[in-house]
Amino acid sequence: MANMEVGGRVFRDIESYKAARRDFDSIEDIKERHDLTRIEDVERIRDNIINGNYRFETMLGDDFLDELDELLETLKKDKALSQNERKGFKLFNKEEKTKDVKEQIREKKNISHDEELEAEIKRQIKIKERKRKIMVALLSVVALACIGYLIFYYTMYAKNDAEYSDLSELIDDTVTSKEYSVNIVHEDKTIPPVLKKYEKLYQKNKKLVGWLKIEGTNIDYPVMQTVNNEYYLDHNYNQEYDKNGSIFMDKDCDAAHPNDNMIIYGHHMKSGKMFGNLNLYSKEEYYKEHPSIMFDTIYEEGTYDIMYVFRSRIYSEEEIVFKYYKFIDATSEDEFNSNMDEMAAISLYDTGVTAHYGDKLITLSTCDYNEANGRFVVVAKKVK
Length: 384
Known about the structure:
This protein has eight helices and twelve strands. The chain is α+β, with helices and mostly antiparallel strands.
């Protein structure tokens, strides 16, 4: 079958492919007719899409809207930075070297009288003392700034915890019916209805694709997704800058129509936030106390049993080696089984859980600081 990829997406039938080509050409035409370095032009295109003046037949339209949102944010940041630079902030850090007081006085003034020399020495000592006090004051300011930063950091930490707690309260566990429906065609399939329990969260941010929770741990977060794997590295659920980032699904996964293996990423924060505690699974005893993962997409609830726990890293394209982050869908049973064998071979311990072709998996991935570009990985199989 010919390659039916358009705009980074692969389409499964010729009609969807043709529709995507039409959308792609329309988007390129829009880009040519506008200056995408101007905030006003980007906002105008975005408003036209939202208001229905520009219509698209496939998910390429949503991808284009995401691209415009991120471009708009970048342009606004660049504009703010440029304004600050024009204010002409000045920084300097000049270190002054001085000679011995008596030698300096003799060289510059050639003073020979003892009394005059003593007076000059006292004056120079006062100058040095004044400089010392200024230096102490400056260091005090720096220390206060550091304390202020720590207060700010822990305030933001508490604020983020409170915000995620508030988000979890928006989940309505009293209902399970799929009453909230979105009648959108996704490539060649219809998007299923959103679970009623996640309707409020979805309405607040439609980049939400699920919720991940591991009982007995601090992992209890919404799962986000956008058209690239960069945005949610430093943005939270409210789309604010946040160095903790968010838990997010790989851009090539499809929560509406689950892949063989859906990959979910999160930072390994020293504070324990996000996937900061995921590497506790390096100990088999911890696994035995927490063998299951709850992962709901916004369309379907799910419970997963942990299969494999291993360490890996990001490899170069030239290296011929098993790359867990490339496994999203298997084209055959042999390929699926090959991936299972590779993960079983490097797993830190045997959980006794196995998978067969047709089973659905999730892979949780975070940084591992044991080596450069290291990753710590937990793989689980859906059991209900």
